[in-house]
Each structure stands twice: as C-alpha cells, then as structure tokens.
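FORM 12-B: Structure-to-Sequence Request
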C-alpha cells in the first residue's frame, strides 16, 4: 500500500477537494495540518519547495497540489503512482 501524506490548513477549499478525491477512491492518507504546527509548515516547504497547500506526497515523492492530483487521477497515472 502506498504511503500518502497531505499537508493542509483548515478552511482551505483545495485541501478539502484533495481529501475528498482521495477518500472517494478509498485511498488512505495521513493529514498534516501546518496551521497547527509551524515546524510541519517548515518541513513541507523543505520537502516540496512550495508554500501553498495542499502539498501531496505519494511514497515520499512530491506530487504537488490539488490540481496536480486531479490531473493524475484524470489521466490514469495516479493508480500507477499508488501501485509503484
């Protein structure tokens, strides 16, 4: 099973959409709220070189944000990442 981590903030519509997309596909994920822990925000920035949320990682590989995740799902490439 793939390890999926989603860095989020409360009241973020794109974070909500990313979590809904993953849940709709029955993909388990760990949510890390960067608005509750500044160290986790710094960790996210270090790992992704991005400051926006959500930031999604599959098996420690940065995927990007919601738009990137949705594009992978639409193209069928998301399943390949999850099964690798």
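FORM 12-B RESPONSE
SEQUENCE OUT:
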């Amino acid at each position: 099973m793939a390890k999926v981590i989603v860095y989020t903030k409360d009241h973020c519509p794109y974070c909500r959409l990313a979590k809904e997309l993953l849940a709709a596909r029955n993909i388990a994920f760990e949510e890390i709220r960067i608005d509750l822990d500044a160290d986790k925000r710094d960790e996210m920035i270090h790992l992704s070189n991005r400051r926006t949320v959500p930031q999604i990682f599959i098996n420690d590989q940065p995927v990007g944000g919601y738009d990137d995740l949705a594009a992978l799902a639409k193209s069928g490439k998301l399943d390949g990442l999850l099964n690798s």
